[in-house]
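Reopening closed ticket. The problem is back. First fold of the pair:
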Amino acid sequence: MAFHCACCSTADRQSFRLYLTPCAVAVSDLLSLGAETEVLGPPALRKAVIEAVRALAARYPPAV
């Protein structure tokens, strides 16, 4: 992933600001950071991540 990063921490949360180079793999790279990752912006990237998460969740129906 081509980016540089800024970090800030509090007692209960660690935040990173990533400056991504636009690329087709940005969504999968961000998803690879794990379930605790939240994309706050830009809106187009956030929407793309939401769509990818929904598609992934659809592959795993609730266990009975």
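Second fold of the pair, where the issue appears:
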Amino acid sequence: MKTHCPLLILLFLSFYSFAQTIPGDSSIVVQGPASISHFQEALSPQDLYVKGHTDAEANYKKYKGAATGTLFASLLSPLVGLIPAIACSATAPKIENLDYPDAKLFMKKEYYDSYTSKAKKIKSGKVWKNWGIGFGVNLVAVLVIAASAN
């Protein structure tokens, strides 16, 4: 028991962490929508780029049609599935499918460029992932059929 006591103490101390403390005299006050829009106006081009990137990761979800179509075509044949995979991954998402959270920010060049490029990468990644799933299913099917033929 005596040898286990230090181990238990170390284990419980590892869960104890020190958090940042904010002094009592500092505070952040947001007063209505005017303050928020003023904050968005004050964003640097780098901040707009990062915000567009993170907003696209959080909000862009309408790639499912392209990805599902590629999956079904790839299940028929991986070669047939290449046609929609190449076509869908080469085209950028339509503006109405982007689901951007703020139209004012979307009008800013850096935010727009970042959001649309990240959305295209998301769409392309999902399309190629589904093509890979279709290819894998076909490969396993061919291997099972070949193994059962012997």
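Update: turned out to be a display glitch only; the data is intact. The chain is about 70% helix and 0% strand. The longest helix spans residues 109-149. Please close again.
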